[in-house]
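Appendix C: a fully annotated inverse folding record. The material below is reproduced so that readers can follow the format used throughout the book. The structure is listed first as tokens, followed by the designed sequence.
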């Protein structure tokens, strides 16, 4: 379950001027009141050279408001690629 305590007070991260909320392997990106938002799930991790685990494979889903069925879905290598894909989708679909 996603805990959104900080969202009401505006205490959340942003990427390209959109809210970004992560809990464990689940990531929500975009304004949930818009027509579309993004749901991402980190599927696999890899070890970084410093020993930390970093996201390796990330599932990205474009979710219509009020629906549990994604409009689009893809798998990305790394969190940076996933966020870039998500940002482009939101730009296109929320016009």
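Designed amino acids, in order:
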């Amino acid at each position: 379950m996603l805990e959104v305590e900080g969202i009401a007070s505006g205490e959340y991260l942003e990427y390209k001027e959109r809210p970004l909320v992560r809990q464990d392997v689940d990531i929500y990106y975009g304004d949930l009141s818009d027509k579309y938002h993004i749901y991402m799930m980190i599927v696999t991790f890899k070890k970084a050279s410093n020993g930390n685990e970093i996201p390796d494979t990330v599932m990205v889903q474009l979710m219509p408001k009020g629906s549990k069925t994604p409009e689009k879905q893809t798998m990305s290598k790394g969190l940076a690629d996933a966020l870039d894909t998500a940002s482009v989708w939101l730009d296109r679909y929320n016009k």
